[in-house]
Specification:
Length: about 260
Amino acid sequence: MRQKKFTREVILIFIGLSAILGLSLLLLPFSPLVQAQTAPTADGFSPPLGFRDGLSYEPRITHNNEGQLIETTDYGVKNPDLQGDTCFGVSFDQIYHAGEDWYRADGSSTAGAEVTAVANGQVAFADPTMNYPGLVVIIEHTLASGPKVYSVYAHLDDSSLEVEAGQIVSRGQRLGEVMYQDYFGRYPEYHPSGDDSHLHYELRNFYNGRNIYPAHPHCGGLIPGRGYTYPEIPDDFPTPEAGYTDPASFIQERLAP
Ligand SMILES: [Zn+2]
């Protein structure tokens, strides 16, 4: 009788331990120990386009025949070429660009251009179902001096996405390709190709853009944000600690050797 009870207790303990062990194994992939795969430091930067193809890319700045600026896709500026209503309650040509739109410098279509990681980091966002239009990738970079910055790549072709959230990436790693977009601006006579394919590229101090527009609730809800700020300029938005930065200058000052 004693012997039998002892055997039953041993069996119960064995079952209990097996259950605990099984649960631990199941939870292992979610434990901090396994997740703590850290990206290498972002010790040097490269532009997001032209890494391998040898071509030049830059914001598009257009003047009309009278020398008046009719288009700029630079950082922190209003683009007189844009038209239509926005979630900010003012027209598109009144809001400030939070990034830069890069086009092929030779005027050819930018569709299909290879987009690459500007520095070592970890993919924080890569929703394959987004329509920004096109897809958006956000990479988190840890600078050698400690702080984190986030690079944002928008208008990638749906079928070209080559990374997923959580993935460690290195500088120059292929993320995808620029999607084709039609031109819908104010000055079609200065854009005869009808092509507006470009990379919208941002560098900023925050990841989540869902609630960065408290004064403009219709603009909320997107982790990438809206790519524009209003009425503040992007340097001051949403606060000095969580704003955007001029992407071309930032990269130029930290170019990888
Ligand atoms: Zn843009």
